[in-house]
Amino acid sequence: MKIRFTPIAAAIGLAAGMLMSSGATAADTIKIAVAGPFTGPVTQYGAMVKEGVDTAIEQINAAGGVLGKKLEAVSIDDGCEPKQGPVVANRVVNDEIHYVVGHVCSGATIAATNIYNSEGVVMVTPSATSPAVTDGKNYDMIFRTIGRDDQQGPAAAKFIIEKIKPKNVAILHDKQSYGQGIANSVKTELEKAGIKVALFEGINAGDSDYSAVITKLKTSEADFVYYGGYHPEMGLLLRQGAEQGLKAKFMGPEGVGNPDINAIAGASVEGMLVTLPADFTKDAANAAIVKAFKDKKRDPGGAFQLTAYSALKAIADGIKGAGADDPAKVAAYLHANTIDTPIGKVSWNKQGDLNNFKFDVFTWHKDGSKTVYK
């Protein structure tokens, strides 16, 4: 029997064909959530991670994808807020996304990890350094491509002890998981070495006037200040300290290492010290990756671009190594193998922390550039 297609039937058939095509396309795509602050005061860190993920995905897809499938990034905003961590995690689960690069901030990461682990989602954070992300959790699905505060803190303290040799140190923090955690780590290491901590105090993130704490810094006669937290507060501390005649040198963790601090601190940012992941852009093996960033007018030299690229590559290599888009098998593969990434050959211990990671100390300059401290 010959079937005659009416215009309506043809339209229905076309629509059905489009739906089938769309379904086939979706089946050929592996979605990876990028969870971090895309709104709020530290959106720059979310942008750094997104640049790293996008560059990695573009290169992997251009080379044929993973197991014949293309990778697709899905950005989800948590505003760097702990209360948004579970909201984002539940969305990832409900959307049936099996892999996450993020979260970016430690507080939001800590709040989300239990959901990911219990729901079988592989999460690799390129930036959350708090030990509380993994300590004592017995997680199988949670990984990092950055070191921990109890690696970064001792590195900063060792530098202070051996290079700065201050008379009195003041330590400030922002009362949050990341900032307070690394401040405590630095304090512990300094006191072990007999360095006097003249002032240890928290400030309120988001305040616009730190005159009272600057007065305390001057009264303490501290000649060196370590601040645990992010760049907006550090920028204000530097600027307001200079305005009030504070002569102490400042140092902070990677959370202060953001070019936007220059707009806040002005010329007073010159000479700020910061611990950051080693500058992996200088590794000749990364020349093609660095070029790929620059070709897209992206900066590969920020705090988290290459750790984020490495997180995405770890997931992609884990899928390839497992031979299946199966997050449980991917996690098992990552635990058992070493992955070649722009930050070096990485491997993880039982709780998902890197076995090795290098932090360097940089001097920050008023033009936004940084140089390794010598």
TrEMBL record:
Alphabetized UniProt keyword annotations: Amino-acid transport, Signal, Transport
Coiled coil: none
Signal peptide positions (record): 1-26
Domain of life: Bacteria
Keyword Transport applies: yes
InterPro entries linked to this entry: Leu-bd, Leu_Ile_Val-bd, Peripla_BP_I
UniProt record similarity statement: Belongs to the leucine-binding protein family.
NCBIfam families, sorted: PRK15404.1
UniProt KW Signal keyword: yes
Leucine-binding protein domain boundaries: 29-368
Biological processes per GO annotation: amino acid transport
CDD domains the record matches: PBP1_ABC_LIVBP-like
The protein's name: L-leucine-binding protein/L-isoleucine-binding protein/L-valine-binding protein
